[in-house]
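All the exercises in this workshop are built on plain-text protein records. An example says more than a description, so a record of this kind follows:
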Amino acid sequence: MNSQNTALVVIDIVNGCCHEQCEDGNLKFGKIRSMVPGLISFIKQFKETIKGQVIYTKITPWTKEFLPPNLRELYTDPACVYYSTDTTGFSEKFYEVQPEADDIVVTKNTYDTFADNAFRQILWDKGIKYLVITGVFTDGCVLATVCGGFQAGCNFVILKDLIETTDEQVRQELSGYLMRYTFPIMYGKTMTSKEFIDGWGGNTS
């Protein structure tokens, strides 16, 4: 890993996945909001220490007209349906994080960022093969992006203190299993952000 072939990916830190105004029923984001200040601090550290590319992902409006056919079909099941009712654009705006001019922003309409061919092309054009993963939801778009990226040939570092999911107990438990077993055994190095910065050597591998 070195500064040229390593990118930080910040997944879906948007109001629709973070802001208290977008909470509904069991969908609570308290743990996510508690994680965000540490993420903001790490982004600054990454730029200063690693000097690699930072890539933010965000979502299209999460409504029927913007989503792909497979999600629309999935959402015909009342147990799965998760359309946004927001029509103001508030849900898609970044929450607390502020991309800078040299950062890349990718907008997606499904869970896996690698479903976007433009995202893949950005990585290949820049020679990026190592992705440092942060963001939400651990058991949703983070998981899907890691699976899609691994299949595409990327290598991963997953920062377990900077990925998070909703407050619901079952999702918290699932996220714990992913961080303790699935991610480190099947997809990539799984560590804290401090361990990553402290262990950075900047050597090509």
Remarks:
- The domain at 6-199 is CATH 3.40.50.850 (Rossmann fold).
- The mean pLDDT is 95.
